Amino acid sequence: MDRLWSPWRYQYVSKALPADDCIFCTKGAGAADAENFVVFRGRLNFVLLNIYPYTNGHIMIAPYAHVATLEEADEDTVVEMIQLARHWDGILRSVYKAPGINMGMNIGECAGAGVAGHIHMHMLPRWPADSNFMTTVAETRVLPEELASTFERLTSHI
Q1: DSSP designation for 18
Q2: How far apart are CA 97 and CA 47, in angstroms?
Q3: Residues 73-91: tens digit of each pLDDT
Q4: Domains of the chain: which residue ranges?
Q5: CB-CB contact of 144 with 56 (8 Å)
Q6: Per-residue pLDDT, 147
Q7: Residue 21 carries which DSSP code?
C-alpha cells in the first residue's frame, strides 16, 4: 500500500463521532457553524463542506430530519434540497470558475453511502482535465485549498 504523509488531516480524522451518532444530525443541531463547516442553513436542509473532499468546494446538502431515503423525506424537504442545489450550482460555478458540477446521492450502504441512515446530496465543482496522475496512478487526491479557506470563500457569497 502506498502512503502519502498528510499530518494536517489528523485534526479531521481524530474528531470521529461514536458509531451510533449521526454526523448530519450532530452538525445540523449544533450552533458552531464555522467549526462544523456549515456554510448555510435553510428551513429544512443545511449546506456543509465535506471534510474529506474530492475537489475544492465539495459541499453536501442534508436535511435536518434523520431520514434514510428520499421516500421517507417529506415533499417540502426534497423540494428545498433541490432548490438549494440549484442555488449552490451558481455559487460553486462563480466562486471556483467551474464549468461543470458533479451532483449525486448514494442512498443505502450497498450504494456506497458513507452515512447510510441520513440522506445527503454531494455537489463538486469540476474543470476540464482536473484529474491528474496522483488520482489516476496513486489513488490519491491533492487539494490546494484548506477547508477553512473554502468555508470563508463560500460563506462570503451567500
Answers
A1: P
A2: 20
A3: 999 999 999 999 999 999 9
A4: 21-155
A5: yes
A6: 86
A7: S
Please, how many CA atoms are within 13 Å of residue 97, restricted to the half-sphere of its CB? 2
The β-bridge partners of 60 are 48, 122
Quick one: residue 37, left, alpha or beta (phi over 0 = left, psi -120 to 50 = alpha)? left
* Answer CATH for 21-155 from 3.40.50.300, 3.30.428.10, 1.10.10.10, 3.10.310.30: 3.30.428.10
Pair 50, 103: CB distance under 8 Å: no
- Measured distance CA(34)–CA(48) in Å, rounded: 10
**C-alpha cell of residue 15:** 474528531
Beta strands in 81-130 (DSSP E): 100-104, 121-126
| Half-sphere exposure for 84 (CA within 13 Å, toward CB) | 25
pTM (two decimals): 0.79
How distant is the alpha carbon of residue 109 from its chain centre? 17
The three cell numbers of residue 123 are 455537489
- The CA distance from 24 to 88, in Å, is 19
The region of weakest confidence among 16-20, 47-51, 140-144 is 16-20
Spatial separation of the C-alpha atoms in residues 68 and 66, rounded to whole Å = 7
